[in-house]
User: Which sequence fits this backbone?
């Protein structure tokens, strides 16, 4: 099933799996847009391909979204859009964890737990960071942070869904960057003990 992942995207992902071909970046990006001009997305909390700390997942009571930083996009960018998806979820489309837009078109950051300017509906239809919560024993899931620099300001109202956002930015991507965090739900210690 890996043949459905564009070759240029496969090179950018640490852990190719069939679901990666359905990510927003596969639809909206291209080889000449990915990391163009050194455009990059990173986090001080995890490196690309590393596991997310539980403080950003459903395993901690007061969990929040991780901090993110990005370099300046190429000329022509008028707005930044962030989409975070889990392509390993057993669903027809990637599980959407965060839709963010209205970010300034320059070098920037989101602090840990910061509320972005505009947030759309995640897969649970909430307008917030949806905490990673893969099923126990399902193995490691990828959480792909996809940042798009687009050539127009969006007029979408907060609360729009993934489909509306993708439709609005299709054909308007100037540059894109990806960052992947992983997470695996481990059995509780009590579940491991034999009775």
Assistant:
């Amino acid at each position: 099933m890996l043949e459905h992942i564009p070759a240029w995207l496969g090179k950018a992902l640490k852990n190719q799996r069939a679901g990666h071909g359905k990510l927003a970046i596969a639809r909206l990006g291209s080889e000449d847009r990915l990391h163009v001009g050194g455009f990059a997305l990173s986090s001080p909390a995890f490196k690309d391909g590393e596991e997310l700390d539980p403080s950003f997942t459903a395993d901690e009571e007061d969990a929040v979204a991780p901090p993110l930083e990005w370099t300046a996009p190429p000329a022509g960018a008028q707005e930044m859009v962030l989409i975070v998806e889990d392509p390993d979820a057993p669903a027809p489309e990637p599980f959407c964890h965060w839709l963010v837009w209205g970010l300034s078109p320059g070098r920037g950051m989101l602090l840990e737990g910061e509320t972005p300017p505009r947030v759309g509906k995640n897969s649970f239809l909430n307008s917030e960071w949806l905490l990673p919560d893969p099923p126990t024993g399902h193995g490691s899931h990828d959480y792909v942070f996809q940042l798009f620099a687009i050539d127009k300001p969006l007029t979408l109202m907060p609360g729009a869904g993934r489909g509306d956002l993708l439709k609005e930015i299709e054909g308007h991507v100037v540059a894109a960057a990806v960052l992947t965090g992983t997470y695996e739900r481990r059995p509780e210690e009590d579940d491991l003990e034999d009775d």
In short: The helical segments are 7-12, 24-28, 162-169, 189-192. The domain at 2-187 is CATH 3.90.280.10 (Phosphatidylethanolamine-binding Protein). Residues 190-195 have pLDDT under 50 and may be disordered.
